[in-house]
What we know:
CATH architecture of the largest domain: 3-Layer(aba) Sandwich
Helix content: 25-40%
CATH superfamily of the largest domain: P-loop containing nucleotide triphosphate hydrolases
CATH topology of the largest domain: Rossmann fold
Amino acid sequence: MIAMNQxxxxxxxxxxxxxxxxxxxxxxITALLGKNGAGKTTILHLLAGIMSxxxxxxxxxxxxxxxxxxxxxxxxxxxxxxxYVVYSVQLxxxxxxxxxxxxxxxxxxxxxxxxxxxxxxKFSGGMKQRLGLAQAVVHEPQVLLLDxxxxxxxxxxxxxxxxxxxxxKETMTILYSTHILHDAEQLAEDVLMLQDGNVIAHQPxxxxxDNLPTKGVVIETNKSLETWAQYFHQQFPSATxxxxxxxxxxxxxxxxxxxxxxxxxxxxxxxxxxKTDQPWTPILRRFQANETRYxx
Length: 296
């Protein structure tokens, strides 16, 4: 399987990633976690062969068929979905007839068969993301690399992509980048965490969760993030508020705050309270001994 061995990448005088080593597990989904600028996209570009490393070696790539979806794919709006996927798969060497057959199959898999003859210019953001997935997998790669594949999707679209990735995992090894911890918790089996171009953790997700020393409280609400984040900071100055700007559920994770205290000052019609043994903040703190908070 494809692996990185002591990989470093420099652009000019700037070091982007340093001494990165890891291998991917066959037919597993690995989340590449890190804040903006941590080196996630660079890692994916190096694995895909879009960039070359400054030092180190990537093994297994020459005998591995790779599919790649960038964070901001650009589509030819003058083409139909079918034309685009046929063109994409022909680049892998298939004949026109084979390309058409495979394109129909994978457009159906991603839910775009009925829209195959529509111009891409008419597609919604969610439809374009499905189309991007179709072109990334139509040649049936062994390794699928995805850069923030759910960052621009609404909740329904995110759920659809997660379902597709679970399906693709049956025949592919998947590495996808995200800064949204909830996505990793929902989908990944392994977690590869980056900070400032360095790998600070690479292990099974469940192993990380099982070793947590603390418990927390998850608060879910459909209220405005800005309003309630300010409210909670006023009520609980030491609380850490985590939220995903895409999802309709805002999650606040607090330590040393009892449920009874939260109940006493909040509108119960607006919130759902859940105890959790798996807050993310302690996971990140384990690898950030010099920081009190790690924010993606």
